[in-house]
Amino acid sequence: MQNLFYKILISTGLISINFSLYGQMDGSISTLNLADSLFHQEKYTESLELYETILNEEQLYSSGMILKMAYVKEGLGDYSGALYLLNLFYSKTSDKRALRKMEELAKKHDLYGYQFTDTEFFRTIYKKYHLHIIASLGIFALFVFSTILYQKRRRKHRPMIAGVFFVFILATLFGLINFGQGRNRAVVLTDQVYLRVGPSSGANVAEIIGKGHRVVVSKKDVWVKIHWNDRPLYIRESHLGIIEG
Questions:
Q1: In this predicted structure, what is the pLDDT of residue 240?
Q2: Is this prediction's pTM over 0.85?
Q3: What is residue 222's predicted lDDT score, i.e. its pLDDT?
Q4: What is the 3-state secondary structure (H, E, C) of the chain?
């Protein structure tokens, strides 16, 4: 079963190299090619080391590279690492099969935070295309505003309906720009992690959790504010793999 998910995605072409970042990666392309070669030779641990070098040092990746890393991580028994990478893959592709794979791993290891809904799917789609959506709304707002000016000057009347619609578009743009991105999520990557009631090592410990859980992040610092069972608690950033955009 582990192999089936990854093989399906490979066979459908979803992990073809799609670096919009290739121009920034000239020094890493040869490393990436070598890692891909080792992966296809089934030298998985060697390929993983090279992939991790690219990810950690360059902070750049394609969905294909991330999916291969997740495959190796799961095969090595590092389910928390695999889940973090699958989250990154999903944030880039919005592929619902990745959600099902994460749910499968979460159920197997009894993990919190993987109850996916249609709302989360649409939020992911928005995060992926938010610049296009905002730009389109901005252009539409200009068109409506131009129409209002034309009707006011040439036809000598006030287009009330268009005016209300224009205000609605501006309010929507304001909401999307300021609040539309929502909150990031993160995967706990280490065992025996203390969740504290405040952002300090001296704060009381509310709970001790293991790796693999997924949490909502509302404030990122040395201490990260998270939401755990609808309760705001704090965890050190070093214990988390944060999924952004």
A1: 93
A2: no
A3: 86
A4: CHHHHHHHHHHCCCCCCCCCCHHHCHHHHHHHHHHHHHHHCCCHHHHHHHHHHHHHHHCCCCHHHHHHHHHHHHHCCCHHHHHHHHHHHHHHHCCHHHHHHHHHHHHHHCCCCCCCCHHHHHHHHHHHHHHHHHHHHHHHHHHHHHHHHHHHHHCCCCCHHHHHHHHHHHHHHHHHHHHCCCCEEEEECCCCEEEECCCCCCCCEEEEECCCCEEEEEECCCEEEEEECCEEEEEEHHHEEEECC
CATH topology of domain 2-109: 1.25.40
Homologous superfamily in CATH for domain 184-243: SH3 Domains (2.30.30.40)
